[in-house]
Amino acid sequence: MMNASLERKTKEALQNGAAEIERLRHQNSILALKAQAFDTISGLVELLTPKSSQGYAPDAVWIMRNLLADIEKRQEQQHDEPAQQAVE
């Protein structure tokens, strides 16, 4: 059997421990909301911040359009060659 002093101290320690856990849980929920708000604002700032150009690397679309133009030009030349030979 616990003596009265030990029982009182145990009861007080359990109450303090439970109160501390509840306080930390509440503080954790507040910090989680702040972290979520920070992430949201950070994402908005990133979206709204002007980006520098992509640097000096060739633009993939520009390369594709040039290759396509070259292919089309060759196809037109090949298509026109038989017609010119028939006229001669």
How would you describe what is shown here?
With 88 residues, the protein is mainly alpha-helical. It folds into two domains: 1-51; 52-88. 83% of the residues lie in helices and 0% in strands. The chain has two helices and no strands. The chain is rod-shaped, with a radius of gyration of 38 Å. The model has no long low-confidence stretch (mean pLDDT 88).
Helix content: over 70%
The CA-CA distance between the termini, in Å, is 121 Å
Main sheet characteristics: none
Order of helices and strands: HH
Mean pLDDT: 88
Which overall shape is indicated by the principal axes computed on the Cα atoms? rod-shaped
How big a fraction of the residues is strand?
under 5%
Q: Assign the structural class, choosing from mainly alpha, mainly beta, alpha/beta, alpha+beta, or little secondary structure.
A: mainly alpha
Low-confidence stretches: none
Number of helices: 2
Computed Rg: 38 Å
Total beta strand runs = 0
Number of domains: 2
